[in-house]
Write a structure and sequence with these properties.
- By secondary structure, this protein is mainly alpha-helical.
- It has helices spanning about 20-55, 65-75, 80-90, 95-115, 120, 125-150, 160-170, 170-190, 190-200, 200-205, 205-220, 225-230, 240-245, 250-265, 270-280, 290-315, 320-340, 345-360, 365-370, 380-395, 400-410, 415-430, 445-450.
- About 55% of the residues are buried.
- The model is unreliable at about 1-15 (pLDDT under 50).
Amino acid sequence: MSISKPPQGLTPTGTIAASADRRRVVFATVVGTTVEWYDFFIYATAVGLVFGQLFFAPLGANSALIAFATVGVSFLFRPLGAFLAGHFGDKYGRKVVLMWTLILMGTATALIGVLPTYEAIGVAAPILLVLLRILQGISAGGEWGGAVLMAVEHAPRARRGAFGASPQIGVPLGLLLASGVMALMAMIAPGDAFLAWGWRVPFLLSVVLILVGYYVRRRVEESPVFAELAERKEQTRTPILVLLRKHLLLVFIAALVFAGNNAVGYMTTGGYIQGYATNPEGPLGFDRGPVLWAVAGSAVTWLLSTLAAGFVSDRIGRRTTYIIGWILQLAGVFLLFPLVNSGSIWLLFLGLAALTIGLGFTYGPQAALYSELFPASIRFSGVSISYAVGAILGGAFAPLIAQWLVQATGSTVSVTWYLAGMTLVGLCATLLLRDRSGIPLGPDHEAEQAESPIYGLSRA
């Protein structure tokens, strides 16, 4: 059909004209987010295995607790990354932000791989480690929003959930890659060799992965929604201020949706289960290798459920998919520790795999859900800041809280109730939101997009 001239390279519906170009976008978001989250999770995996001993040993009995706290420190800086990425992403485009977040994350990760330990340089070692972790947090805070919008804003309206799942599966793929590489190094360099140099190799591999991710992302076109905003010169001058003035309550509710997922997910992505199961003084005392392979296997089930949830949300809506996911996640939470504490590595894997089904259904639709909540001109800021705040409220200190609860109560039952409570928080937040699946995302529909999706409010 013939319609007035759309922006160059785009169809009148605002999607990329060629299906080959759409596939390139999906591939680029998967590769880029996988690399980013590999870098982020390799740190958390190392915390549970070696960092307490190598960087925080002088703290004695509290070394593991402090090491897990450094996982959470990076989350405190995610909002800074989200603010910066949101501001520049809404003003200058999604693509340029994604390039810089990839470079920053890769550089910080590679530097951790050559960082001397406490034994070599004393207190400077943990200080430098925390500073590099902060850089990872800033990068992670900016990465997700850009990747999500590149995928969802390129997608056909009826397939946003499926397209939006592509950056989401970068998380389980990153966990799979991080756990798999660590498990491989535990085989190649067992025992003292792993502590001496084996743990460093996965960090140094980041250099190769970053080059691959950078090459792939360079070949992707800018988001069609931003391209149209730029052509019309309608970028918001101060998107953060507009967001906080008009949509603050929405940001908080969206953050709670993610917090319910993130707190539970960080039992593995934050390294807690790995550390708990391999602690030689703990109740299980498994070898590193089998536990890492079990985590890697559960990353596969997480990937599949995340991908499935994206497709399902295109059929039954984001909200309904989420509600199903919260029910599944709650069941997984109550199964987790009874299976982990069984003493069988196979039942440990089964517990993790059961948990990831619900995690996937409360994560797969998130990209499309968030993108459909905010107006086009401030969308990057909205999704990035909601995600960053949710990460702080949920996963930032979940491993630390779990460690403290077990030390205080002597039982993992307290951790189960903590995770169940966070799951219910996510469910309640979801119930406060209307389903906006399929709402137009382009700048022509800002008025409709500004209508509040919160029940009881007519306009944000």
